[in-house]
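Justification of resources, computational component.

The compute hours requested in this renewal are based largely on the per-chain cost of generating structure records like the one below. Each record pairs the submitted sequence with a full structure-token output. That output is archived, and it is also reused by downstream analysis tasks.
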Amino acid sequence: MSAETTENNSITANEVRRRVLALGMNSIHRSYDRELKQALDKYILSNVGEVMSYWTLLDMNLKVQVVQLHEEKIVAALGGKLD
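The structure output for this chain reads:
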């Protein structure tokens, strides 16, 4: 492999971090460990902006959980209210 090919295939440290965090979040979401799931919920609730930066890497079920945890904010942002 040439140096040029290697250079073109490299990813940034930030992208590696993003992928590793998304992988961990997906793994925790699928696990049976209640404490880890509670920690994930707290993370999602407190860091939704950061979670959104991983959105394309998250499993669909985890995306649904994010939306459920932030339902009131989403509805309010769309100009509605929950009954």
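Residues 13-30 form the longest helix (18 residues). Residues 3-77 form one domain.
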